[in-house]
Design a protein that fits this description.
Blueprint lengths: L9 H33 L7 E6 L6 E8 L8 E19 L2 E21 L6 E8 L4 E8 L9 H17 L5 E4 L7 H4 L5 E11 L6 E2 L3 E2 L4 E7 L2 E4 L10 E10 L6 E8 L6 E9 H7 L1 E7 L7 E12 L15 E11 L6 H4 L1 H8 L5 H5 L4 E7 L2 E4 L10 E10 L6 E8 L5 E8 L1 H4 L5 E7 L8 E12 L23 E2 L3 E2 L55 H6 L61 E9 L4 E10 L11 E8 L8 E2 L10 E8 L3 H5 L2 E8 L10 E8 L9 E3 L1
Antiparallel strand pairs: 1-3, 2-3, 3-4, 4-5, 4-6, 5-7, 8-13, 8-17, 9-10, 11-12, 11-14, 14-15, 16-17, 17-25, 18-21, 18-25, 19-20, 19-22, 22-23, 24-25, 26-27, 28-29, 28-35, 29-32, 30-31, 30-33, 33-34
GO molecular function, one term: phosphatidylethanolamine binding
Keywords: Calcium, Cell membrane, Endoplasmic reticulum, Lipid transport, Lipid-binding, Membrane, Metal-binding, Repeat, Transmembrane, Transmembrane helix, Transport
InterPro entries: C2_dom, C2_domain_sf, C2C_KIAA1228, Ext_Synaptotagmin_C2A, Ext_Synaptotagmin_C2B, Extended_Synaptotagmin, SMP_LBD, Synaptotagmin_SMP
Length: 747
């Protein structure tokens, strides 16, 4: 599948093929002259390490596509996402003390982000290049030599995952590789930019999950679901709810978001079992939409499964430099984020005897057989702790002036009372080389809530320091842009066939009404509900206090009761639409506006979605202009045991652009959304009043049909790469309210 904003770069792949042999020669030289001496210096046992064969083969990496970002980002940068695929025939062998180790073939694929910044007005025009993977790349390695042991099933999975973790610790967000292209370029702020924001995920509940537990291979039992939530390399697990297909979790998780667009929220549901946990469905949510909407509270359909919906509330928290926002949260949630840039240390003691026991301790140890070990430079790492969370830096070997160059983030609940505890330890001896405690209240004295300095180490030499930069930022939920149409359910990325329509349109499966989800009264059975679309040009304020992120009470329409409809089936009220100011209290309150997502970009017009009972009503969009009408004939054929739907035609459709419309009609008999059961008319070219006269049958019993809902959408057939919205309008008919044997025909 080729997406419209991902470009194929065959010319670049041809350049790679041509240059690959020369790259291989450079890498062979690097392995022999740079890597081999470094490995030998690491450990006394590796002194005999020798590369016996280095061959990068003939197969070079391939770039399947490039996506370039220039609009949503800073003007002084260019962001490229490279879809890299490498199925290589490289062969590298190494001898260590008569043992032969080797690699014979590597597979690697993932999305590599390349950031070119800052753009300059003089050569080389780009200050630096930053590289990192958005998520862990997929990696498979074929081992050779003695390491064939690592190919044993079970062990090979472990070895590959260890190497993947090793790569992730250096190349996957928030870790980055930054290469300066201009001399004297300060790249610290490029390697460790302040995160884009924080997303707070409220995992509320799920419903209609698939049954995974079985008894004696036959009787289905209830599952024990839990959720894994992941952004980049950070993963959280929810509690397990025992024996429940409609679990309620009510848990909250917080993630730091480093790159938007790019990072997504992944949610996987599993059934906990003693042997192997069964997969129950997944969800992928675009954080760009959440960032723009600020708050999303929705039921999301699960992908890669046959049924199930997940209720999430997502809040986007911006990082602001405002101390007034640092009030403590009564629910115990985070109110700020602390970013620690760990730079380096100076004059660390060789061992803790230098300062703990003074001269007396030093004399005692002179005759010790471990004298050599204690006199050499320390191999140090740092433990940083805020509250109950501790993070560990990498280890710098054999240096009293180590440089770590790493960034860490911590969630802060109370900036005025919490502290950062720093402890430098020697990896060879379980002893501290120095400690430091920084009260976060010191940061509040600085207007930028930033400290960039050397901190004196306690329990260390008198001239031992650690250099760090500390940045405190308050977490703030901003008000959304009133002009913006909320994404809501369409924040969920493309799912499986049964919840997607052609072109990737995901449609929400309407879950049973829940009082805590919708505060709007339900419509009575004999009244009509009209859901209206906001003005296309003025984009009315869609934001309300409804808990659902994409729902607002809409203008009310005059309802016709059943007796009126029977007496005058062709009657359509002339003043069907009422403004908000003149709502008649006795009229039925409309449920909620739900925008059907569009595969077009965020800037495009929203698709429209209407839920109707079968009263005669014009479809309005709030401007007095109808969106059009569709004429249907529906009846149940008892002899054939089938529901017959005749699509006669449409009139007065509203075009999404001036290029004209090629309309067709798509029909589902809900809740069945399988691709195979989808009905579709032919496409009529360039008309707003198409005539179809096409008949469709659903072979179901009358009892079953009475429980179902007809979902009918009028769509615009257009090329996949088109930015026009696809859906022109939608009607839902509740078949439980209709006399299907008698049948009905109406606009």
């Amino acid at each position: 599948v080729h997406f419209p904003d991902v470009e194929r770069v065959e010319w670049l792949n041809k350049v790679l093929v041509q240059a690959w042999p020369y790259f291989g020669t450079i890498m062979e030289k690097t392995f022999k002259e740079v890597l081999e001496p470094k490995i030998r210096a690491k450990n006394v046992h590796l002194k005999t390490c020798t590369f016996t064969k280095i061959n990068f083969g003939e197969k070079c990496p391939r770039i399947n596509g490039i996506k370039a970002y220039t609009k949503e980002i800073d003007r002084r940068q260019v962001i490229l996402d490279l879809q890299i695929c490498y199925i290589g025939d490289c062969e590298i062998h190494m001898d260590i003390s008569k043992f032969n180790l080797g690699v014979k073939g590597v597979q690697l694929y993932g999305t590599l982000r390349v950031i070119l910044e800052p753009l300059l007005t003089d050569a080389p025009f780009i200050g630096a290049v930053t590289l990192f993977f958005m998520q862990k790349p997929h990696l498979e390695i074929n081992w050779a030599g003695m390491s064939n042991l690592l190919d044993v099933p079970g062990i090979n999975v472990m070895s590959d995952s260890l190497i993947q973790d090793f790569i992730a610790a250096r190349l996957v967000l928030p870790n980055r590789i930054t290469v300066p292209l201009k001399k004297n370029m300060n790249i610290a702020h490029l390697r460790f930019p302040i995160p884009h924001g924080v997303i707070r995920v409220h995992l509320l509940e799920a419903e209609n999950l698939v049954q995974k537990d079985s008894f004696l291979g036959a009787i289905r039992g209830k599952s024990d679901p839990y959720a894994l939530l992941r952004i980049g390399t950070v993963q959280y697990r929810s509690k397990t709810v025992s024996r429940d297909l409609n679990p309620i979790w009510n848990e909250t998780f917080e993630f730091v978001v480093h790159e938007v667009p790019g990072q997504d929220l992944e949610v996987d549901l599993y059934d906990e079992d003693p042997d192997k946990d069964d997969f129950m469905g997944s969800l992928l949510i675009s954080l760009v939409d959440v960032m723009n909407d600020r708050t999303v509270d929705e039921w999301f359909p699960l992908s890669k499964t046959t049924s199930g919906h997940l209720h999430l509330k997502l809040e986007w928290l911006s990082l602001v430099n405002d101390q007034e926002k640092l009030h403590e949260d009564k629910k115990g949630l985070s109110t700020a984020i602390l970013i620690v840039y760990l730079d380096s240390a100076f004059n660390l003691p060789k061992n803790h005897f230098e300062y703990s026991n003074g001269e007396c301790g030093a004399k005692k140890i002179k005759n010790n057989k471990y004298l050599k070990k204690t006199e050499r430079e320390p191999s140090s790492f740092v433990l940083l702790t805020v509250g109950n969370k501790t993070q560990k830096s990498k280890t710098c070997n054999f240096s009293k002036d180590p440089t770590w160059g790493q960034a860490f983030t911590f969630f802060v609940h109370s900036a005025r009372s919490q502290s950062l505890h720093v402890e430098i330890k020697d990896k060879d001896r379980d002893s501290a080389l120095g400690t430091s405690v920084v009260c976060l209240s010191h940061l509040l004295k600085d207007p930028n809530m930033t400290l960039d300095q050397r901190f004196q180490l306690d329990h260390s030499s008198s001239d031992s320091f650690i250099k760090m930069k500390l940045v405190l930022r308050a977490l703030n939920v901003e008000e959304p842009n009133p002009q913006r149409v909320k994404a809501g359910i369409s924040a969920s990325k493309q799912g499986p066939v049964h919840v997607t329509e052609k072109g990737g349109n995901q449609q929400k499966f309407v879950s049973p009404p829940k009082p805590e989800v919708s505060k709007v009264p339900l419509v009575s059975k004999d009244s009509a509900a009209l859901e209206c679309l906001p003005k296309k040009d003025s984009r009315e304020d869609l934001d309300t206090n409804e808990s659902s992120a994409a729902s607002v009470p809409s203008e009310t329409a005059a309802g016709l009761n059943e007796t009126e409809r029977e007496q005058n089936p062709e009657h359509r009220p002339s003043s069907a639409l009422h403004t908000r100011a003149a709502v008649v209290p006795t009229l039925p309150v409309v449920q909620e506006l739900r925008l059907a997502p569009s595969v077009a970009s965020l800037g495009s017009l929203p698709s429209s979605c209407f839920e109707l009972s079968s009263s005669n009503l014009d479809l309005h969009n709030g401007t007095g202009m109808p969106l059009g009408e569709i004429q249907l004939t529906v009846r149940y054929a008892s002899v054939r045991q089938s529901l017959v739907v005749l699509v006669n035609g449409c009139r007065n459709l509203v075009p999404p652009s001036n290029r004209g419309v090629d309309p067709y009609v798509r029909i589902y008999l809900l809740p069945d959304r399988r691709w195979a059961s989808r009905k579709k008319t032919s496409v009529k070219k360039k008309t707003l009043n198409p005539q179809y006269d096409e008949k469709f049958e659903f072979f179901e019993s009358l009892e079953d049909v009475k429980k179902r809902t007809l979902d009918i959408a009028v769509k615009n057939s257009r090329p996949f790469i088109s930015q026009e919205r696809k859906e022109l309008g939608k009607v839902r008919i509740d078949l439980s309210q209709e006399d299907l044997i008698k049948g009905f025909a109406q606009w």
